[in-house]
Specification:
By secondary structure, this protein is of the alpha/beta class. It has two domains: about 300 residues, P-loop containing nucleotide triphosphate hydrolases (Rossmann fold); about 180 residues, no CATH class. Helix content is about 45%, strand content about 15%. The strands form two sheets. The protein has a twelve-stranded mixed beta sheet. A two-stranded antiparallel ribbon has the order 7-8. Strand 1 and strand 2 form a beta hairpin. The longest helix is centred in the C-terminal third of the chain and has 36 residues.
Length: about 500
């Protein structure tokens, strides 16, 4: 529930309502708790409250449950019982303006990126490359960038890898050694990703992340990503969400602390982002999360345990909702103790004990105050959503997709001229040039043979002819090389951001 003084009513405790201050909402946050403790409902309450305040949100829908945010909720005995407790009379149930997205294009607007836009760092993570292979991939991208070759889909990258491997000696001095073994390993990783259906993500039209920042009737649009199928490939899921976040960072201007965020980005199943991720990339992620705040974007991680999030990033999450945790093992007990210590203690109860006692829908809540300091933790009950809890029908989803402003923009893919076509044409031209040289060489040798048969006296003229032919061959080769180089450099000036994506400003 959004109030006129730009506060968001999220939960209720013995001391009364608990509000999140709108100006502090972009200071990031966390929703954590064991399975079945109410994380999804808390996410829905937060999202629809932001919606009411005019703030668009992005969220991944793991089971289809969050699609219900698009439809009005209904009164139930549970809600009727809670209304007096929360100080709510006659709740006005309503759905939120919602757009559905799906990497596979089955349950929403397709989401695609080009290989060039994703960049070598995120692609290396997606392909699970080692340090050496990642270095080779960086070289390949650098050569493509310097020559103005756009890598749109997987066939472009495969062709570029083949081109760099075949011409490795030419690039060694400028870019470093290119190992054919590493190139082969990258090619195999691409084939494995393609076999898992990952190739459908790469192509055009590429998604513009700024399309998330829209409102309808003064309310923020809820951008819901169908992730039930995408979750079968955790690397693709987490890398894709990280790419979206980096795109927002690269494209949005600096705005400082606003009265309300421009966008709230919910990163569900956050543990997948940090699992098997190199320290170098985690440092980059930490930097993006720290800096994206000044672009007006609030990032909220949703996960089963606070320990899933690296400490360097957890320290930036000022708004916290912690549902119940389970402590069946010594390791679990340490996690509970560590989680309790991250809160500002409340003298009225034991934080560590409360974490183990919380029921479904209850949580420990601590938001930032007006000065940006954490409030004392409160044991509270999360408000009920005013939108539908649970999945919508296929017919309802289809209707919303077809009535969306984005309908028809991303739904049909196309394949324009890019690295594959340009390098293929270059190969053809090189082959034609070699054939011409071979034909000229044959003619020259035949002519020399005839002249030798005529007489020895014409040997000087034969030598002159040979020199002219050699000169002509060198000139033709220079012309061809210059023309090819000029063609490669069209569209040059590609710059990359923190996570290696194209800097589009």
């Amino acid at each position: 529930m959004y109030t006129e003084d730009k506060q968001l009513y999220i939960a209720h405790c013995d001391n009364g309502p608990i509000y999140m201050i709108g100006k502090m909402a972009n200071r990031h946050g966390m929703i954590a708790g064991a399975t079945g403790t109410g994380k999804t409902v808390t996410l829905q309450v937060l999202a629809e409250t932001f919606c009411e305040a005019g703030v668009p949100c992005f969220m991944a829908d793991m089971k289809g449950d969050l699609s219900g945010i698009s439809q009005p909720g209904q009164m139930s005995s549970f809600i009727e019982k809670r209304c007096p407790e929360f100080g709510i009379e006659n709740p006005q149930f309503h759905g939120c303006p919602t757009r559905f997205f799906d990497v596979y294009g089955e349950q929403g607007h397709p989401l695609r990126a080009t290989i060039s836009e994703m960049g070598p760092q995120l692609l290396a993570r997606l392909l699970d490359l080692n340090e050496t292979q990642t270095g080779i991939l960086n070289i390949v991208f650098k050569i493509a960038d310097d020559q103005g070759l756009m890598l749109i889909d997987m066939k472009d990258l495969r062709m570029m890898l083949d081109y760099v491997a075949k011409n490795a000696k030419e690039f060694t001095t400028t870019y470093g050694t290119v190992s054919s073994v590493s190139v082969g390993a990258i090619q195999r990783a691409l084939l494995a990703l393609e076999a898992e259906g990952g190739e459908i993500f790469f192509g055009e039209p590429s998604f513009n992340a700024l399309d998330f920042l829209q409102t309808e009737g003064g309310r923020g649009v809820m951008n819901v990503l169908a992730a039930d199928k995408l979750m079968l490939n955790p690397k693709l899921y987490s890398t894709f969400l990280l790419w979206l976040l980096s795109e927002l960072y690269e494209q949005l201007p600096e705005v400082g602390d606003l009265e309300l965020p421009k966008l709230v980005f919910f990163f569900d199943e956050a543990h997948m982002l940090f699992k098997d991720t190199s320290k170098a990339l985690i440092d980059k992620i930490e930097q993006v999360i720290r800096l994206v705040r000044s672009k007006g974007v609030g990032v909220y991680f949703v996960t089963q345990s606070p320990s899933d999030i690296p400490e360097v990033i957890a320290g930036q999450l000022g708004n916290r909702v912690l549902h119940g945790l389970r402590a069946y093992t010594p390791k679990d007990q340490k996690t509970v103790k560590a989680a309790a210590q991250t809160f500002r203690a409340n003298p009225s109860f034991n934080t560590e004990a409360a974490i183990l006692e919380l029921g479904t829908g209850e949580a420990l809540v601590s938001f930032l105050d007006a000065k940006g300091a954490p409030c004392i933790v409160e044991r509270a009950k999360i408000l009920f959503p005013l939108s539908q809890i649970g999945a919508i029908t296929e017919g309802q989803r289809t209707a919303l997709i077809r009535n969306s402003r984005l309908y028809g923009i991303y739904d049909k893919s196309f394949d324009r001229e890019s690295a594959y076509e340009l390098l293929l044409e270059q190969q053809k031209q090189e082959e034609k040039r070699r054939q011409r040289e071979e034909e000229e060489e044959e003619k020259r040798l035949a002519k020399e043979a005839k002249e030798k048969e005529r007489s020895r006296s014409t040997s000087s003229r034969s030598t002159s002819t040979k020199k002219k032919s050699t000169t002509r061959k060198a000139v033709e080769k220079t012309i061809n090389t210059t023309a090819t180089t000029f063609g490669r450099q069209l569209g040059k000036s590609i710059f990359r951001g923190l996570l290696g994506g194209i800097f589009k400003k």
